[in-house]
Design a protein that fits this description.
alpha+beta, GIY-YIG endonuclease, three-stranded antiparallel sheet, 3 strands, 23% strand, globular
């Protein structure tokens, strides 16, 4: 089954992390960088995608987003680093 929803973390220009969900990742990152993505990222552009994972439904993506938002900054950084390591070793 195709994963139609994505949970993502972006790094903002002030070195903060923003977590969100979308069903069109490329469009959403462009919206963040164009200043129409979210109130939080608007003054913190440009943003860069640092983490993404797929989910089968919006509700599953929203649950995972909430779990990630509950992590500390250090835990989020470890999550992103682990994902990069996994991708580069495949």
């Amino acid at each position: 089954m195709k994963r139609s929803w994505h949970v993502y973390i972006i790094s903002c220009s002030d070195d903060t992390l923003y977590t969100g969900i979308t069903n069109d990742l490329a469009r959403r990152i462009k919206e963040h960088n164009d200043g129409i993505g979210s109130k939080y990222t608007r003054p913190r552009r440009p943003v860069q995608l640092v983490y993404m994972e797929g989910r089968d439904s919006r509700s599953a993506a929203a649950r995972r987003e909430a779990a990630i938002k509950g992590l500390t900054r250090q835990e989020k950084i470890k999550l992103c680093a682990k994902a990069v390591t996994t991708i580069s070793s495949e």
